[in-house]
Amino acid sequence: MAIPKSKTLVAFCTSAALLVMLAGFALPRSASRSVDSQQTAEQGKLVFEKYGCFVCHGNEGSGGVRNKNAATGGFVNALTYTSRAFKDADLKERIIRGPTPVKKADPHGSTPPLSMPYFRGAIPDAELNDLVAYLRSLTPEEGEEPKPVSKERPPVPDFMLGDNNCEICHSVVTEHFKTNPHYGADATRKGTSEVIVCSTCHGSGKIHAASYGDPQAIIQFSKE
Ligand code: HEC
Ligand code: HEC
Ligand code: HEC
């Protein structure tokens, strides 16, 4: 008899505590929204660096990173004005949606090397909210100029630096590679689970990645 009683008491206390907490959090937040969004934008800048967004979108999303044969002028798109085109929820979804095939400038030319990584499940919702606030803070008001951007690049985050981590930055190229008949064929023939990996032909990607994709730091092949 005593057990159900105390359970009810605990349940009551928990929900009462929850109500107090909710009320406590809700009030100061709505009272100081602009300070909050400035804070989350500052947090968002750190999140932007933590996930290496600048490696492709440039410092503070200002663009300028080469993406050979991309229809967007041969560069990865800047993010300065992106927030104008999206509601918060859509922008969050756009960040975690994964790569979309980048349109080619020359339809017969090679696949643009850079595309969005797979971030779904990797970036917690709180960080996504901070990222959205940050992207909004980059967008100037109508008639104003974008803010000046610092020239010094933050270090490439550790999770991008592996011998064979190519997929993080080259997601679409990697997807195409996996549909190549050679991929895995060798392993099937030899009866192992070993498949050909990118570094078999291109060499380790560690230095290439750490140097923001320096083309000199990876083995390349010309069409000839
Ligand atoms: C941290 C992100 C990053 C990682 C990880 C990475 N790359 Fe790159 N890669 C780049 C960037 C950025 C460029 C574009 C550089 C440029 O054109 O100035 C590039 C360009 C290339 C190019 C030249 C493409 C061309 O057509 O000019 C090749 C080849 C390449 N990467 C292969 C690899 C391979 C193989 C791996 C893994 C072993 C790898 N990359 C890992 C960022 C990365
Ligand atoms: C490896 C390079 C790379 C990295 C890293 C990267 N992006 Fe992208 N991003 C792209 C490319 C290329 C596109 C355009 C095509 C596509 O969807 O793949 C794009 C598209 C976008 C778009 C849509 C823009 C529009 O106008 O539709 C947003 C928003 C975006 N990225 C935000 C981010 C954020 C935030 C991060 C970090 C969490 C990030 N990206 C990391 C390469 C990258
Ligand atoms: C069997 C050797 C081999 C393997 C394995 C390999 N590549 Fe390549 N890669 C090449 C050759 C050869 C070219 C040049 C193709 C050309 O110029 O037509 C190339 C070109 C590229 C390019 C330049 C863009 C393009 O399409 O021309 C990128 C980026 C690239 N490879 C990334 C990768 C990644 C990422 C992987 C792993 C998923 C990988 N490669 C695995 C041999 C290989």
Question: TL;DR?
Answer:
The chain has 224 residues and is mainly alpha-helical.
Question: Would you mind describing this structure in some detail?
Answer:
The protein is mostly helical. It has 2 domains: 35-154, Cytochrome Bc1 Complex, Chain D, domain 2 (Orthogonal Bundle), CATH 1.10.760; 156-224, no CATH class. It contains 10 helices and no strands. The chain has helices at 2-31, 33-50, 53-57, 88-96, 125-138, 166-169, 171-178, 185-190, 198-202, 206-210. Helix 2 (33-50) packs across helix 5 and helix 4 (88-96) packs across helix 5. The radius of gyration is 23 Å and the shape is elongated. Residues 1-14 and 16-32 have low confidence and may be disordered. The site of one heme C has 26 residues, from helix 6, helix 9 and helix 10.
Q: Secondary-structure map with pairings?
A:
Layout (H helix, E strand, L loop, with lengths): L1 H30 L1 H18 L2 H5 L30 H9 L28 H14 L27 H4 L1 H8 L6 H6 L7 H5 L3 H5 L14
Helix pairs in contact: 2-5, 4-5
Bound molecules: heme C (HEC) (3 copies).
The site of one heme C has 26 residues, from helix 6, helix 9 and helix 10.
- What is the number of helices? 10
Structural class: mainly alpha
Distance between the termini: 85 Å
Number of strands: 0
* Alpha-carbon Rg, integer: 23 Å
The stretches of 5 or more residues where confidence is low (pLDDT under 50) are 1-14, 16-32
H/E series: HHHHHHHHHH
User: Which fold name is given in CATH as the topology of the largest domain?
Assistant: Cytochrome Bc1 Complex, Chain D, domain 2
CATH class of the largest domain: Mainly Alpha
Mean pLDDT: 85
